[in-house]
């Protein structure tokens, strides 16, 4: 019953259609999905049992490891041209070095999540060092975004580097009401390939999955080059982009559409 109610709510409330975009024939953002970490503390079927309540042909676009000036700027431009919003999981050191890009992400309506200070494999270091990586990463991202260093994230979304977590760290993040994002599938863009090869790989995986959270890296030149064609593929094949956001401050809503 709960799942049916959630999907009914999703179907009934659709926002930010392509026709709201000032440019015709764009993909647009189909709807905004509010994800409460209390209800969905861990999502992404490559790592966890649960994922976001997406309908068939709905995708959430996520990017890791930035910002990186030469490529992130191109990715933001491609998303802007199609009126699409995505989620960026930032490396704290990169956010510090590229604060203007962090502010651009926020100004263009994207969601900013967190990905540690320096992309350490948190499973290979002590728990104390791992917590420091998480907290210093959040603090650096928040300083770049809002000019205030704090370990309480504006957006309580986090992704582990390499998807390598520990039970203690998962419990800690859940206790702090920070949602952990895995992915449902990815572009494998850490491997060298041409933009066309990457496009064929990710569209093939999308056809097989039908929906889901997709992982890209905005630090990769091949991804930046491929993205306009991928967004065009989504539009031409009637896929819909869902933008994820946290609950408003002080609210306790379950995952829902706005």
From TrEMBL:
Keywords of the record: Hydrolase, Metal-binding, Signal
InterPro entries on file: Glyco_hydro/deAcase_b/a-brl, NODB_dom, Polysacc_deacetylase_ArnD
GO terms for cellular component: membrane
GO biological process, one term: carbohydrate metabolic process
Keyword Lipoprotein annotated: no
Family membership: Belongs to the polysaccharide deacetylase family.
PROSITE patterns: NODB
Signal peptide (from-to): 1-18
Organism in which the protein naturally occurs: Tardiphaga robiniae
Domain NodB homology: 57-242
Classification lineage: Bacteria, Pseudomonadati, Pseudomonadota, Alphaproteobacteria, Hyphomicrobiales
GO molecular function, one term: hydrolase activity, acting on carbon-nitrogen (but not peptide) bonds
Transmembrane region(s): none
Name assigned to this protein: Chitooligosaccharide deacetylase
Cross-referenced Pfam families: Polysacc_deac_1
Function: Is involved in generating a small heat-stable compound (Nod), an acylated oligomer of N-acetylglucosamine, that stimulates mitosis in various plant protoplasts.
